[in-house]
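In the lab's daily routine, each protein ends up as an entry in a very long ledger. A line of letters takes care of the sequence, but it says nothing directly about the fold. The fold becomes a row of whole numbers, each drawn from a learned catalogue of backbone shapes. The protein below has been through that process, and both of its lines are reproduced in full:
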Amino acid sequence: MPETIYRTEEEVVTAANRALHKTLKEFIPREELDEIEDKLAGYGTNRKGYLGDLIERYVFGIANNGRAEADFKLAGIELKSTPLRRHKTKRYVAKERLVFSMIDYDKVISERWETSSFLEKNRLLLIMFYLYLDKGQSVLDYEFEFVHLLDLLEDISEQDAEQIRKDWQFIIDKIRRGDAHLLSEGDTFYLGACTKARNSRVVRDQPMSRTPAKPRAFSLKQAYLNHLIQRNLLGARPDAESIYRGEKHDMTIDEVVEDKFGPYIGKSDTEIMQILGWRTDSRPKNFKRLLANRILTGTGSNKIEEFEKADVTLRVVTLETDGSLRESISFPAFDYKNLITQLWYDQKEEIMSDFHAELEMSRFLFVVFQKTAEGAVRLSKVKFWNFPAEDFPEAERVFDLALRCIEEGRYRDLPKITGSPVAHVRPHAKDSSDTQETPQGTQEIKRSFWLNAKYIESVLKA
């Protein structure tokens, strides 16, 4: 069958729209189905690349080129397919991040953003969203729900485009310093450097260091892809406050945050309230969090648009007069029976455990207050932080120990704060009656993973 030539954006989009509300199986000749299903069985769960090849061949009539150029070269369009999940309130959400091409460590260190291989290949994206139902579903039965043509520079806000450029630059600068082995998705806000290896033993050379690094690819983070789905596909209005009110749109998120908090560093919570014109008769438990929100957005809203798009977790902590931190940092409570089905990194599915993903992908903003000898509480600093690559082996050890204890019903032996310099497991419940069923059929109080107070204290002092 001769290959179809696409010269314009309209031709590509028209062809894509023919797939809406259809499955891939409807495009494949019946006489070829058996051979394709046999190949899919051979791929097992590692079939995402083959799915893309099938879409190119049967929906668009083009061959997979495997080159650095866009899939539709003449039209300048790169084809991407990505799964959606149904959601109770938002209708649809992204199942995963949107992964681009592999990062060529040798090549990217000599590139500039404006002429980068990433932008040349991925500026104009045709994204085909299909509905994912369950693990047992054949990729041939995925139904295409939406088709969207996205210009990464023109179809998003000015500040988002600038943040993606800054994220790209951060990744490149880290590789130039010889730190490709220390890259993490939590390093950046919207554009990430995600791992692309079947297991931790797969590494490659990097040009500026003798230390081998994991293979990585550029990706749009899942939280940001969700923002695009809600805004561009479903037409939802923002229900969160933006930090960019009154700020220049060419500033990045960290620059805006620094600009917002800068005038209040060193001032007491009472002084900050007076400057903000905020009067309240009582101070609720989350008072300092509300104060931080008012500094960022001018309101007490807990929902901040840029933090939701970037999967940033805002943590307000209070240091003692001597600079020590008493409270550890918690993650969401886990389900005992679900947790033991997870692996730290599932090689077959190419997915992380929930705890691993939270550490790898999340970025934290610490808003730090400190008590004074006079009884005041002053804003000390604000700091963006993500979990460092060198501490993942210890976090994995704690995770594996927790799994063994749960599998064996040894709940009193779950990892304690004295057993690791980084993390531990402890209760995360409303009260003693807030329990969950265990794999053994008993009830145990809800628990979660925590980052140790001393560990976070050392982070804040760095």
